Amino acid sequence: MKKIGLTTTVPVEILIAAGYTPVDLNNIFITSDDYLKYIDIAERDGFPRSLCTWIKGIYGACLQNDIKEIVGVVEGDCSNTKALIEVLELRGIKVYPFSFPHSHKLEDVEHEIKKFMDVFNVTIKEVEVVKNRLNRTRALVKEIDELTHIHNKATGFENHLYQVSSSDFNCNVDAFDVDLEKIIYEIKNRKPVIRKLRLGYIGVPPMTPDIYSFVENHNASFVYNEVQREFAFPRANNAMDIYHQYYDYTYPYDTNFRIIEIQKQIDNRKLDGIIHYTQAFCYRAVADIVLKEKLNIPILNIEGDKLNVLDARTKLRLEAFLDMLLDLKESK
C-alpha cells in the first residue's frame, strides 16, 4: 500500500479504502530519538524560529521519510498549515487539501467528506466497510481509556500513547490490534493505583510526555486526555455513518463545542483540576480565555516549545498547582 502523510487526523477510512497507508507525520516527529533534526531541516529551509515547532517537525518528517503525498487540513486545524503545504508542494510533494467546515453544519461536513471520497475515487459503501473494521480497533483503545479512569490500572501516559496512535493506527491496523490486546492483558493483571488527584489534560498532545510521570510523583494521575481521546473516536460506534462520526469529532470545531464534551468528562471522571497545554506561537492558546471562563474547575495553562522535557519553571508551576488542588480537596 502507498504511504500518505497526515498533518492531523482526517477521515482515514477514505484513505484506507483507496488503498493507502496513512502516516501521521506528528507521530513520526515526536517519537523520533533525534526529533530536533526535523526542526533543523525546516529552519535551514527558511522556516522562522517564531513558528510552531509542530509545523516545522511535520515538514522535516515529511521530507526525511520518503513521503510523496500528504493530506493537509486547511480548515479546522493549525492556521499555519496552508503555508506549510505551499512549501511542501514546492518540494514536489503532492498535497490533497481537506477541510473541517467552520460552520459545523452536518450538511457542510457531509459535503467535504463526499468531495474527499471523490478525490480518492471510493464509494460510501467501501468507506463504511472500513469504518466498521476500524471500530473494532477503536473499541480496544476505548478499553484502555476505561482501564485508566474507571479501574485505575492504565497510566496517564499509556492512555495518551494508544489514543494518539489511533490517528494512523501505527501504520498497520492489524499489528496495532495485536499490540493493544497484549497491553490490555498486561494492564488488567495489575493492581489499581489510586492517587489523591484526578487530572484532565486538554489541548494539543504535548511536546513533553514526561508530564505524565511528573504528576504521578506528586500524588496525581491524568485520567482524561481530551484531544488524544478525540483522535480515537470513542463515540464512533454510535455514529450512524461516517458523516455523523466526523460531525461529532470535537477537535476541529469551535471551543464551545469542545467544552460540551469536556464538561461531560469532568463530571463523569470526577476531575479535580485540568492542565491546559498549548504550543508556543499557536493561535489555540487564545482558547484558554474561553475555557477558564466557562469551565468551573481549576485550570493551569502551560506552554511548550522545542524541548521534549519539562523545564524547571513549568515544573515549579505544576507543583504549586497540584499543592493548591490537594489543599482544596482536603478542605472539602
TrEMBL record:
Q: Which cofactor does it need?
A: [4Fe-4S] cluster
The protein's matches in Gene3D superfamilies, at most eight in alphabetical order, are given as: 3.40.50.11890, 3.40.50.11900
Q: Which Pfam families match?
A: HGD-D
Query: Which GO terms of the molecular function aspect are on file?
Result: hydro-lyase activity; iron-sulfur cluster binding
Q: Does the keyword Iron-sulfur apply?
A: yes
Q: Which UniProt keywords apply?
A: Iron, Iron-sulfur, Metal-binding
InterPro entries (UniProt xref): FldB/FldC_alpha/beta (IPR010327)
The name of this protein is: 2-hydroxyglutaryl-CoA dehydratase
Q: Which family does it belong to?
A: Belongs to the FldB/FldC dehydratase alpha/beta subunit family.
The answer to whether the entry has keyword Disulfide bond is no
